Amino acid sequence: MQTTPGFLRSLRFKLLLASLTLLLIPWAGYQYLQGMEQTLREAQQRLLMSRAEIIANLLAVQSVKWLSQQPVNSEITPSLYAFPLNTPPVIDGYADEWLSLKPQAERFNAAGSQKRKLGLDWLAGFHGNNLYLLLEVEDQQLTYPPNEQNLAAGDHLIVALPGDGGNTRQLRLGTPAPGWVQVQQQDNARPIAGLSGEWQETEAGYRVELRLPRDLTAGRISVAVIDYDQTAQKPAVKLSTSGLQHNRALAYLTLPTPAVEGLLAGLADNNHRYTLLNPQRQVIGRHGTVHTASHKLESLPQRLISLILAEEQAEPFSERERLGRLDGPEIRQALSGEGAVYRYQAAGTNLTMLSSAYPIRVDGKIMAALVVEQSSQEILILQQSAIEDLLLISLGLFIVTGGSLLLLATSITRRITRLSGKYQQAVSPDGRLLKPITTSRKRDELGQLDASLSAVLKRTKEYSHYLESMASRLAHEFRTPLSVIRSSLENLEAEIDSNPLSDGETSAALVYAKRAQEGTHRLNQILTRLREATRLEQSLQQTEVVETDLSMLLKGLSQGYADTHQTIRFETRLPDGPVISQVSGELISQALDKLISNAVDFHQPDTPIRIELHRHAEDRVRIDVVNRGARLDETTQQNLFKSMHSRRASSSDQQPHLGLGLYLVRLIAEFHQGRVWGKNLEDGVCFSMQLPLNHNTAK
Predict the structure, then answer these.
(1) Is there a contact between 89 and 126 (Cβ–Cβ < 8 Å)?
(2) How confident is the model at residue 313 (pLDDT cuts 50, 70, 90)?
(3) Which domains does the chain carry?
(4) pLDDT for res 611
């Protein structure tokens, strides 16, 4: 039976695997683009570093314009930072308008016992000519002054500003109850024009929001918190951002200045952001924006490419655009004297930023650092576009080449399958040629294979024909010498009868002559059987089939077998109606003769032989011959219907058994496009012959 190989073992699958080598094309292209991307990154870093160095040196020449108000020694005199504000906040004592800047508030804590905690969060901003302060005080217990004239008797704030003669100008801010802040100078009670504030309580203490003119600060300011806990009968606790008594002790107020931003404005472009930092890493000037145009991932290939080209995640930084104080490895290295480049991930985005920092030296002393930032998104977009083109081209090549190979493999497989089926149908299981072979007209390798197999099969057919005709020739050639031997033996017996010898010699001669006669008779039967088999194989090619009622045929044959074998009981199980099939009645009778002869030889005495006819499936009919007797072993079942095979160990009826009977049954069944088999029953053996059923006959 022809079997179809699984897909995993077929030529199509093997050629499909071979086509997968095309994936080396995008892999090699990807490796090349990765190397190109690394080269572009390194070049971008070098260019950014060179840009930062050149601009830092230019700014060092203009140092007089922007270093005049910078702190000389930050370790002795601290600095307080003020952020530029887009819109002026409403002075209401609430922090709603400061939420984006609150994470950058500076924290000051007072030393004291754990039961008396005091803290200050400083946050400042400027808009126009006004300075705005948000001061959040952590105080466990609030003590308000008794009235507006005696603010010093309760919790209050002191704001120190530069004054005349080297001494500071101190303002006391407080209120008897939450609301507008009362402002007093320590020396007199004169009001300060342009200064206003609001005092509100919080869960941790209180919050004060102030507004004052920038001119009052002259670039320096300090704030002190006075905590007067009267109910606990403890002395007041003081917390300040810096010294309060002398102008030189005030903290520097650091904020971006128009002079610095004017210098940076001349460098502005669409791809870089320039930030100038003082030695405390505070922003004193910023200008420009980073180009953040990203490659939109609209299609599925683009999304897959974004996953493949996922950049190595750099350390996430907060968005630097609104930070008043910057920090990073490159900034620390620049303030130590060496330029550096660092790559970081912009917070809340998928943009990779390059940051280059370079020190600004004035008279050999590091006075500031310049930070130049640029997005590396252009390189990623370029790489993604190249990878997308490479992927689409490779995918197209893979589909075309893989599809072509698959079609070619399918065509070759189909031709091989047809070639295999053609030769399997042309040759019977026992090697006989059933029909002539028509070779293919194609002249490729498969066409040549078809021609070669056809030639081999033709030579095999000629040799098989020679072997098949040999039995007939031998039978013809043997009959003449057998006739001579038989006539000679008959003459010898007649001679002995006419010229008798002694009694002992005559008896021995007759015995030998009789044995020779039996041998010649048996050889004659063997030759007859061989000729019978040969003639049957030859006659099958000219035999015609007709519509035959198998039920009536088996019924008549059963009666004939009962008359021939009167000591054996034959039983039949036939359908009620006719069973019509396109068969040769003579050949079916001959096949049943062989099966009945086999059943008679092997059945148990006093047991019946049963002939049955069954409808098998919708288009088949089955004839069974059942007898009780010895069962078939496994070897016998495999070789039972082969030529020259017999399971008789010895013969007691002096009849030759060449193993051709069941072989002829198989030939007859295959001639009718059927099959024959034998199987063991519990108490005997059943031989079955399956034949096609004629559908045109009414059932």
Answers:
(1) no
(2) very low
(3) 30-69+257-384 (3.30.450.20), 79-254 (2.60.40.1190), 445-538 (1.10.287), 543-692 (3.30.565.10)
(4) 92
